[in-house]
User: Fold this.
Amino acid sequence: MSATAIPLDLTRLRAAYGKDLSPSIVVTRILDDIEVRGDDGVWISRVPRDALIARARTLEALSVELRSGLPLWGVPFSVKDCIDAEGMPTTSACPAFAYAPERSNLAVERLLAAGAILVGKTNMDQFATGLNGTRSPYGIATNPFDPAYIPGGSSSGAAVSVAAGMVSFALGTDTGGSGRVPAAFNNVVGLKPTRGRLSGLGTVPACRSIETISVFALTAPDAQQVLDIAEAFDPLDPFARHAGDEHSIPPAFRFGVPNELEFFGDEDSRALFAAGVDAVVALGGVAHPVDYTPFHELNDLLFSGPWLAERYGALAGFLEGSPDGALLLTRDILLGGQRFTGAEVFAAQRRLLELQRQVAGIWRDIDVFVVPTTPTIYRVEEMLADPLVLNARLGTYTNFVNFADFAAVATPNGFLPSGLPQGITLLGPAWSERALTGLADRFQRHRGSPLGATGFAPPEHVAPLTREIA
Assistant:
């Protein structure tokens, strides 16, 4: 059986492994594909070929009984390069900042312990300071649908590595949309878990108090299975939280849609989102308008308010010690956090609490909140010409989510007349991931969305994960 004929979603990859496919064949195919793609801006560092094949053969040497206890046996994945993976440098897309971590982030450790194969560390907007994917000295990850367009960021390489069929899933991060915007532009699923569900230790913080590791996958069930394995309460992480009650979405459900929708003149994206809303109705939903005013204010707090001071504080030592080490735009963005006073920080925190209480009230009237993942997409040359304004527009429907303490699943929603993909995002209260991924799976199948840029359709049946790593 040829590895090139096997899609990398978990269901079919596992089925193929149960026949005559092996991890070493898959790894070799991936390495060959990466070589053919050349300098596509996806990778910052990769596991050497010999080490990657050795990892695959070590897994192949395990007994059938041992393999059965590894739910990710032979599954290839990538990690955004602001997340630590032992044995590989962490750069956060800044060569002058690079360091060698002593251990991997806990989620990475658990995925490896479950039998997954790490292929490499992926490109990103430097220090996670953008939603567009163009702010890296390692180049721009090539959008697999049209290289003239941005891949989305900051987790650009992570999303492209999944969409292009180089890995089954990827870890990214998400502060204001970095785990969802690239999902939309690459036609993959982006799962943004509840804050504190995955350990943030062993990551380079963008805005530590509100960010989270995220998951990119070809299907929503795959993303949920990865989350189930990666999750563990980390007592050393001051932002870790014990899981709360799970939220459910009934068969006949109510969903919210913003009462004001802005697409910045992109009427094709407006029409595509309307088609997505119709699809949610077809799945049993009844639409309700939601006042978007408080969400706009939350957006402004994140990247125009004093949380910029937290971003600056996390990297102040590096910025002062290596004044020329970061890209000029990145440095200017981070240094903007210096202007806020302590009084402004506390005033903003009070306002945040008020807004959180206000937006939490929507769950009395709806079961899920449906928004466009992005209002539009831009060409690379457009983004480089106007990087701040256009980048801010990309976060219109993403920036508020961590502030609001929502979980989110960005889901493919079809294609624009240009052939570029766009998505919708399903939002729920904290700990609603499982309900959201269930609905996202139904939505993706209803819309007939293929898996990334691979051309494969979703698998007909998804077997539930029954084995977890303790």
Summary: The CA atoms of residues 260 and 293 lie 9 Å apart. The chain has 16 helices and eleven strands. The mean pLDDT is 95.
